[in-house]
Amino acid sequence: MIVLLSLLAALVFGSGVVLQRRAAMDEPDHQAANPVLLVRLFRRPMWLLGLCADVGGFALQAAALSRGSLVLVQPLVTTSLLFTFVFISVWYHEPITAGDWAAMLLVMAGLSAFFIVASPTEESVPVSDARGWLLCASAVILLTGIAVGGGLRSRGPARATFFGVAAGTADAFMAVLAKAFAGSWDRGLASLFRSWVPYALLAGGLVALLLVSTAYQAGHPTMSLPIITVADPLLGSCIGISLFGEQLTLSGLRGPGMVLSLLAMGTGLVALGRSSRVARAMAPEESEPAGLHVSALRRANRMT
Fold first, then answer.
1. Least confident of 29-33, 109-113, 140-144, 224-228
2. Are 77 and 60 in contact (CB under 8 A)?
3. 2 and 65 Cβ atoms separated by less than 8 Å
């Protein structure tokens, strides 16, 4: 059931990526990481449809994490990029090329090998002391702050890269908070809302939504999308191991085998995310030879 819920979450997440990206790319650059960006996007029906997919995917992910471990659920959720790719192919009636199939098979092979070799903890309990949560939150805030600062000072692919790191980090921490929230239901509703978890989840969700939208707005989806897809499960799994005591089996040859499986999965994800098909679907003007001129003209029209 944990695996099924995780894959359903990936499917729903994957369906919403293109909708949110296409809406966010039309917003001006100076709204980056600004809460006003969300206010503007809420007026866009396409973005709202993507947001509904995000909410549905997050609910399924939280259900999987209520019992499942982060080291199991988060790698499965990375398959959202495969679903995004298939969704784009169906929407634009384009056949999937042999290279694309190879990249998707590489992702699945790497993911399967990771589960076989590393034998990740299947279930875990989101219990940690205040010191652990404080250290975790501090590390996440520091990494996110550095990435946002770098993004605001950069342009072009570097800007998309920095905001992709920030968005992936925020998404990873949201998964951790979702696990803490889902794992607290058995204490009763009144007790749950007397704790800090639901309020941290709400605040973190707004921040993550803003950062993901900013990453989409920055353009260059072939940079930001693979980074978000890889950073989210990687950081989420690291937090699960350090905060909740989840485990991977690394004895003997299992350690190198796990590294190779993760490299294979990451390579496949990056190959899919950097596909020209993704660029055409999510940022059409960036795939055209005159893309820079089109983008400049669009910005000039906004100013008039």
1. 29-33
2. no
3. no
Residues 266-292: tens digit of each pLDDT? 898 888 877 776 666 665 555 444 333
The C-alpha atoms of residue 30 and residue 156 are separated, in whole angstroms, by 14
Identity (one letter) of the amino acid at 252?
G
The two tokens of residue 137 are: 């939150």
For residue 287, what pLDDT is reported? Answer: 46
Please state which of the ranges 4-13, 15-24, 36-45 shows the lowest mean pLDDT.
Answer: 15-24
Q: Give the integer Cα–Cα distance in Å for 95 and 17.
A: 20
Structure-token pair, residue 239: 């937090």
| Single-letter amino acid, residue 69 | S
Q: For 236-258, b where at least 16 C-beta lie within 10 A, e where not — what string?
A: bbbbbbebbebebeeeeeeeebb
Kindly compute the dihedral angle of the four CA atoms of residues 95, 97, 98, 104, in this order, to the nearest 10 degrees.
-90
> Do 23 and 47 meet the contact criterion of CB atoms below 8 Å apart?
yes
Of the listed ranges 125-134, 141-150, 160-169, 275-284, the least confidently predicted one is: 275-284
Q: Which of 86, 79, 85 is nearest to 233 (CA)?
A: 79
Alpha carbons 12 and 249: distance in angstroms, whole number: 31
As a whole number, mean pLDDT of residues 122-135 equals 90
Rounded distance between C-alpha atoms, residue 225 and residue 83, angstroms: 13
Six-digit token string for 177: 């908070």
User: Is residue 252 classed as helix, strand or coil in its secondary structure?
Assistant: coil
Furthest-apart CA atoms within the chain: distance in Å: 65
Task: Find all residues with CB under 8 Å of 282, minimum gap 6, and list them.
Answer: 17, 18, 21, 22, 25, 216, 221, 225
Q: Does residue 25 sit in helix, strand or coil?
A: coil
Tell me the β-bridge partners of 123.
68
From the list 275, 260, 237, 274, the residue with the least C-alpha distance to 106 is 260
pTM exceeds 0.70, yes or no: yes
